[in-house]
Amino acid sequence: MCTHDGRAADIDLTATAPLRLGIACGQQVWMDNAGGGVTRVRATDLRRLARQVAAARAEHPGRDVIADINVVIADEARCARAALAESTDLSAADTLLYVGTASGLAGLIADMYALRLTDGAMLIPLLGQEMLELIRNEVLPRLQTFLPGQVPGSGVVLRDPVG
Fold this sequence. Notes:
Structural class: alpha/beta
Largest sheet: 7 strands, mixed
Number of helices: 4
Oligomer: single chain
Helix content: 25-40%
Order of helices and strands: EEEHEHEHEHE
Number of strands: 7
Number of domains: 1
Strand content: 15-25%
């Protein structure tokens, strides 16, 4: 890879730490056991997210920084969009919103992690228990395929909300 002026650029794509992953549903938070504390950030788009993550990393060196993502997923993206349109709860408008398939969500999380935009994600299912099942049964296996050796396995535990 070259820079804009033609010089070679070194790019290190090796992962430095495992992906951090959690699920927040109401007052319950499931978080992996991959290490120390995390700092959660919210933003409405990836550009703002990058700024929030940079600020959090500067303020809390050594802590993993994860992005809150509101999620609505279904087997087909059009079904997820329809489910969202029928919902009246559109809370947390200051948070990234992903509406689509489990594979697409896994790809977004994997890309954000691989590009070192974040150290992981806190998934916030907007439409209840069905979303939790899809995350567990569809998103996690795809993440393990996209990021072999970097995704927490079965070490996800229920604990108090993370700061």
